[in-house]
Amino acid sequence: MELIMNTRAIYWKGNAKDVKISGTFTNWKSKDMKNISGTDSWISPVPFLSEDEEHEYKFLVDGNWIHDPDKPTKPNSLGTLNNVIERKTPSEVSMIEVERKFNVPDCYESLMERHGFKNMMGFERDEELCDIYYDSDRYDLMKEDYWLRWRNGDWELKYPVGVHPTGSTLYHETSNVRDIVSKLQILIPQKNNQSVRNSTIFNNIGDFICNQILHKFAELKTKRRHYQKDNVNIVVDETNWGYKVGEIEMVVKEKSEVPEASKKIDSIARQLNFKKLNLTFAASKITSPIEN
């Protein structure tokens, strides 16, 4: 039995007919794990987890609640043990995500296989996402490369934390609602009908929406596939009208490692015939199906 943890999914390895996972990140509701065809491995995607918080989980294997004794545990209220995703240290939290987005050719799957990238999901059907994007009438968020979305029941905000001379943008993603609201109060300094700044009255995301400060501008249903080779992750998203966007990502510990990671990302993109994404063109591809 082995448990492997990364930022995208949780894996279970062991002989079983049915495996489910339940934890703080599922509100303790049992969620089916998928068997990777031809193996005894099971997998479940997980939402973005706050790295400065502790998360608990457990497996339901063939109807029996179990934990992995080789991984960190803590007692629960029933007197048994839960597995724990421990809070990361400040040095671990400060890992830098280097990524670039690209237009993806229709033949990307064969190119991925040819260059040794493996589909990490192993699902009979793709991971499905439903994203609703919000911004002000003047697109105050998008102008600053901030992306606010409601994804499968959770708020997420992705935003840049620096731009390296190589051209790579360093991003951070948070699902902490308080953090999101504090940034909205700064980025959207509009006034409501009573000419009162939102920062004095809008204390949650719902306030921004109810007072018509934030509006839905796009709703996307996306099929997502994950690929991996060594320390490189590639995610390919295909919208319900067939538009494909790929993201090549590497994680490094120091800013000094960013240039080399950026060069490697560009090299991989050339091998896979990925073309640099034009953000203006991409935005039109996102919004036009909603507006028509």
UniProtKB/TrEMBL annotation:
The first-level EC class reads hydrolase
Pinpoint the CYTH domain residues.
Answer: 95-292
Q: Name one GO cellular component term.
A: cytoplasm
In terms of CDD domains, this protein maps to: E_set_AMPKbeta_like_N (cd02859), ThTPase (cd07758)
User: Which co-factor is required?
Assistant: Mg(2+)
GO function terms (MF aspect): magnesium ion binding; thiamine triphosphate phosphatase activity
Please give a single GO biological process term from the UniProt record: thiamine metabolic process
Describe its function. Answer: Hydrolase highly specific for thiamine triphosphate (ThTP).
Q: What is this protein called?
A: Thiamine-triphosphatase
Protein source organism: Lepeophtheirus salmonis (Salmon louse)
